[in-house]
Amino acid sequence: MFVELNNLLNTTPDRAEQGKLTLLCDAKTDGSFLVHHFLSFYLKGMGRIDAGVNLTVARERGQLVFLEGLKSAVDVFFQTQEEPHPLQFLREANAGNLKPLFEFVREALKPVDGGEARWTYPVLLVDDLSVLLSLGVGAVAVLDFIHYCRATVCWELKGNMVILVHDSGDVEDEENDILLNGVSHQSHLILRAEGLATGFCRDVHGQLRILWRRPSQPTAQRDQSLTYQYKIQDKSVSFFAKGMSPAVL
Amino acid sequence: GRELGMLDSLLSLGGLVLLWDSVEWEGRSLLKALVKKSALCGEQVHILGCEVSEEEFREGFDSDINNRLVYHDFFRDPLNWSKTEEALPGGPLGALRAICKRTDPGPVTIALDSLSWLLLHLPCTTLCQALHAVSHQDSCPGDSSPVGKVSVLGLLHEELHGPGPVGALSSLAQTEVTLGGTKGQASAHILCRRPRQRPTDQTQWFSILPDFSLDLQEGPSVESQPCSDPHIPPVSKNARARTRKCSLGSGQRGEHKSCRGW
């Protein structure tokens, strides 16, 4: 979890808003550091992890449910089909919808009978949504899947969603554009990591644009968007205003 | 003055009003402000809710307004994945037709939240036929019973649709409002088409108050003037946003024509 990013977003793990969808988007760069931030952010917010974040421990406690898409994709071909599989669409000539995948998500969010509550509110993190397009699912079908997840996770269970979508950039990809724009319109917060237009730089790794959308109440005038540049270091990410990299000053 | 009130009086013309928003300039707040205005005028107001929950849509309205809103829920289970009998029969178009078979002759406003969702899930021709029938209901020939004014407000996300559907919807609309802005200040570019008159356009600066009242503001406005070419088709197959020659007060309209996410 990157404390500087929390400061920019004006949030902390113990006072995160609920019922929100955050879109992470990367263009000409790797936005996975944002995924790692939010995974750590929400696991810390569960309040039971004292020192750092241990994904193995979280998984053992049932706080982290992980669908390994790659492994699952192989299973769907080499295992007998006894009941609907989350990646059922891989077996079908025309992948109609992602209902089985949604049902897997909904099942995973159900409270375990007896025992301690695994979380105060659920968080669904999708890394990454663009892969579904590559596997032959249509953009509208993916948007429908996200819609149903949002209705369950954000509205019904008052949890949060974090979704990573890649921006194909200059490559014409109509389906990906529809997917990216469609999820953008459903989002409350968009974080867009972009590579520098001038190319690789040792001290500035990219630019982060932050857009707040869909406030519960409209405000007369507000800063909707902010833009920062960033540098990824060993265990942290530093953010600074454009042109204000410490290496430059 | 009268010029400042164009956004305020959108619904007085009736017919189909398209509300174009973008990722950067969301349009639901303006949709809710117009819905509130209709309710305050004593109209029946129906919401076809596909994108947000009923609670979220009603948030910010007081009880007087909420009591006048009829919310048709297509958010929880729009595709009937739960296979319960709770799904509304006939889907959104069925609901639209049912609203129009009303016996109450008073004026009605129907808010489609969103028309983009409908356009992504229904054939464009079917949707256009339904919109044409609904928004021209008060001028239907052969119908002896007088029917009040029908206003249909459709929220559209400009980045999601190609030039074909955009052109089809524009040709049906009496009014088109395109949201934009600069430096945190929102603007609405309003294009009005009245029968037997040249289309007019105006840019209106505005903000929406926490109670969803419209606060019209003076800004770098442009005098209302006839628009030389009311319907300009997109020039590029990649142009997902609509392009127009009409001048824009903010000068920012071109920036979100690139339509590659945000």
UniProtKB/TrEMBL annotation, chain A:
Pathway: tRNA modification; 5-methoxycarbonylmethyl-2-thiouridine-tRNA biosynthesis. Transmembrane segments: none annotated. It is found in: Cytoplasm; Nucleus. Keywords: Cytoplasm, Nucleus, tRNA processing. GO terms for cellular component: cytoplasm; elongator holoenzyme complex; nucleus. Its main location: cytoplasm. One of its GO terms (biological process) is tRNA wobble uridine modification. It comes from the Eukaryota. InterPro entries: ELP6, P-loop_NTPase. Belongs to the ELP6 family. Component of the elongator complex which consists of ELP1, ELP2, ELP3, ELP4, ELP5 and ELP6. Component of the elongator complex which is required for multiple tRNA modifications, including mcm5U (5-methoxycarbonylmethyl uridine), mcm5s2U (5-methoxycarbonylmethyl-2-thiouridine), and ncm5U (5-carbamoylmethyl uridine). The elongator complex catalyzes formation of carboxymethyluridine in the wobble base at position 34 in tRNAs. Involved in cell migration. This is Elongator complex protein 6. It comes from Macaca mulatta.
UniProtKB/TrEMBL annotation, chain B:
This is Elongator complex protein 5. Pathway: tRNA modification; 5-methoxycarbonylmethyl-2-thiouridine-tRNA biosynthesis. Residues 219-262 are annotated as: Disordered. It is found in: Cytoplasm; Nucleus. Belongs to the ELP5 family. Pfam families: Elong_Iki1. Signal peptide: none annotated.
